[in-house]
Each structure stands twice: as C-alpha cells, then as structure tokens.
Amino acid sequence: MSSLLIKNGTVVTATDHYQADVYIEGETVSMIGATLDIVAEREIDATGCYLFPGGIDAHTHMELPVMGTQSSDTFETGTLAGLHGGTTTIIDFANQSRGGTLEAAIQEWHRKADGHAVADYAFHCAVTDFNDDSRKEIPRVVHDHGINSFKIFMAYKDTLMIDDAQIYQLMEEVARHGGIVTAHTENGDMIERNIRGHLEAGNTAVKYHALSRPAYCEAEAAGRAIDIAHATGCPFYIVHTTCEETLEMVKVATLRNQKVHVETCIQYLLLDESWYAREGFEGARMVISPPLRKKKDQQALWASMNQNLVHHVATDHCPFCLAQKEAGRDDFTRIPNGAPGVENRFELLYSEGVAKGRIDLNKFVEMSSTGAAKIFGLFPRKGTIAVGSDADIVIFDPDVQHKISAASHHMNVDYNPYEGWQVQGKTRTTILRGTVAIDDGKALVGRGFGRYLKRPPKKGPLAN
C-alpha cells in the first residue's frame, strides 16, 4: 500500500484550522497529528501552505449538447483543468431527452465520463419529461445508480422546461425515495414573451439576452418552486442564484423554518451586467442563463454566505469557443449559453473572498467543498480532511500571485472571462485519493483516473 506524509502544513476544514502533519495510506487519510514521526514512501513539506479539502464543483456541463453543438470541454479535459485549479470532484448533469428515459440519459453520461474523467465525478439526473414512466424510474435512479439529486428547468420552454404539476409530482416522488430536487429557477413563459418582443422589434444584439431575463423572472420562479417544495416536503436546492430578489425569497422561506439550499457561481460574485454593454460581439463570451446581474447583487451574494443563506459556490462550467458563439452574432437567441470556470473557481474564491476579507478560511472551505459534499451525500468521504476520508487534499500557497490567461489555462476553450486578473494564492499540489495528481503545474495522472461516485439517499426530517 502506498504512503504519503504531508509535513508542516495548516489543515483547514469548514470548522477548524490548525497546524498538523497528515499521513495518507492508500487512498485515505490514516492519521493527523501535530508532529508525526512516521516513515512514508514520499514526504512533502507544506511549510507556509494551507491544506484544503479537494474542491467540489457541484454544477458542471461537460460535453453538453446545445443548439447543434456541444460544450467544448470533455470529461477528460474539463476534469483535468479542474484538478489544476484544486477541484478534485465534479457533479455533472445527465439530461433526459424529451421522449427518452432517465436510464438512457444516465447511460449516455456514463459513456462520456467512464474511462475518460481524470478527477472523480457524480451525476445529477435532469428530468425534462416527467410522466408515469419516468416516475417509475426514480427508485432505480436513487438506489441502483446512486444518484440522489434531480434537476428541473423552469425555463427553456419546449425543450427542457416542465410545468408546475410535473414539478409537484416529481418532488413528491423524489422526497419519498430520499432524494433532493435542484432547480434552474427562471419563469420560462415570461422570458419567451420578452424574447419574442425583442425579436419583433428588431432587437437582436447581445444585450437583449440579459434584458429578456430580468431578475424578477428568476425570483418569481424561485418563490414558486420553494412553495412547491414546502408543500411536498421535498429537500430543495436552487442552482446558480444570481440576485438579491431570489435571496429575499429564501429569507421568507426561513420564517416558516423551511431549509432551502442555495448555490451561486463564481461569475455572479465577480462579474456584472456591464459585460453586455461591451462593443461589438464581446459580450457574447458571457451569455449565460441566468445572465450576469448588478454590483448590488454581488454584494448581496457575498453577504449571504456569511448569513448561511448561500451554501455552495459552483461554476456552471459550460464552455464554448468563440467560433461556436459566432452562431448568434445576428440573433442573441442563437448564442450557445455558457462560459468556462472550473479551473479558476477555487483560486478566485480564495483571492477575492479570503484574501480580501469577504469570507474567512472556514467559510471558503464550506463554499468550495464541504457544503456540496453534505448536501449531495458525499460527506465525509469527500469535503473534509479527516481520518478515513478520501485523501483529496490541495496544498495551497497563499503567498503566490499569478495572472489568469487563456494562454496558460488548461480548459479547452479559447478565452477566459477573467483574462488578466491578478490572483492571490495558488494551488501548488493537488492530491486525489492519495495520489499526487498535479504538482507545480504538471499533471501526473491522466485519462480514466477519475472514479464514479455513488451517493446514498438522504435521511432525516426533510432530509436537510
């Protein structure tokens, strides 16, 4: 059995931080102590560095079919890029096709990921056609495939969106089997009406993407889904929350003791709607749904982390190269929605959060790893540094400064939204299941090293 000893680092979890040595045997943490006098096959000196649990990005879209093309990162390139930045586990979305089965969707995503992913991975199951047949599949998805999370779309009418009656029935069934429902909360009917109005008026420029999807569309759908979750007793999670209005809906739910899990994404914390006012077609790079919001929304999202209203910072990583974005140069509705971020999330959250005093070290770990692990059934295997946990550890040097650039990133996309950003702190070494995967920018593992993660049903009152 292989062994690794990390000496002199500062261990940081969601609740503690302390100086200690960490001894790894095989794939798991075997011992943690102030000064371990143990001989290992390899020893790493982490003096001056933090030891963080491997990052978990609970919202990615590798090889996602969109508008006749697909997102440019494969499970191989996307997970390898994540490892370079400190993310050791992703949760991607197996999307049901209209008229298709949940089983077919899961098998298709296994075909894409198995034997290809470099980091560990799990799936959410996206339900886009809920009916009596798909209802019968829910127990198998949870208990056989180890997928305890189901996604719904309240937007993308005629392709992904399901109606309130379907949402209600799905939540009833998912709650019965110990699952959780996650939701893209935008009012699809209002958005479609806005889009038609703009196109009829000849408004086809990039900025009309954002103008078609105002914050109130997101907040209305969030409030509606929260109410349905409350009525059915189903655990509920809002993906990519962008705005203060949605957070207000979550606050109202807490008054009746309802727990609503909230995810935001790194782009909504750092970038704003001014992107869409850029000259020419530049703003297409950040055509995402929901769109970027105002600076006041950024402030609300940062504050909500410390108020325990936001529980995870993900990416919604769904990159498209510039040539792919060109499909919508003359019609904003034809721009593939999505942007890159899986490689930069971890370091940016530290630099803009911890280094600038917005959040502390423990909150950083909660937002980047532990929160998602607990919500989606990966904890304590993932999301912490503890005896018996998987040895997913990031050796992070807080003193190193570096710049983000598409010229040096590892994501399979030809631009970076954070081009030229000066970042404080850098991932020095990424360890996945006891194996040094990335060391000083060099990849030491490759295609197929990642492992599929089954997750158990949730338990307890409302499984929160």
Description:
With 464 residues, the chain is α/β, with parallel strands linked by helices. Strand 9, helix 2 and strand 10 form a beta-alpha-beta unit. Helix 4 crosses helix 7 and helix 7 runs parallel beside helix 8. The radius of gyration is 21 Å and the shape is globular.
Tell me the structural class: alpha/beta
Radius of gyration: 21 Å
Number of beta-strand segments: 19
What is the overall shape? globular
Largest sheet: 9 strands, mixed
Number of helices: 13
Fraction in beta strands = 15-25%
Helix content: 25-40%
Distance between the termini: 37 Å
Mean pLDDT: 97
Q: Which stretches of 5+ consecutive residues score pLDDT under 50?
A: 460-464
Topology:
Layout: E1 3-12, E2 17-25, E3 28-33, E4 42-45, E5 50-53, E6 55-60, E7 65-66, E8 69-70, H1 75-85, E9 87-95, H2 102-113, E10 120-126, H3 132-143, E11 149-153, H4 164-176, E12 180-184, H5 188-200, H6 207-212, H7 215-232, E13 236-238, H8 244-254, E14 260-265, H9 266-270, H10 295-306, E15 312-314, H11 322-325, H12 345-354, H13 361-375, E16 393-403, E17 422-432, E18 435-439, E19 442-443
Parallel strand pairs: 1-4, 1-5, 6-9, 9-10, 10-11, 11-12, 12-13, 13-14, 14-15
Antiparallel strand pairs: 1-2, 2-3, 5-16, 7-8, 16-17, 17-18, 18-19
What labels would you give this structure?
alpha/beta, single chain
In brief:
The chain is of the alpha/beta class. The chain is 31% helix and 24% strand.
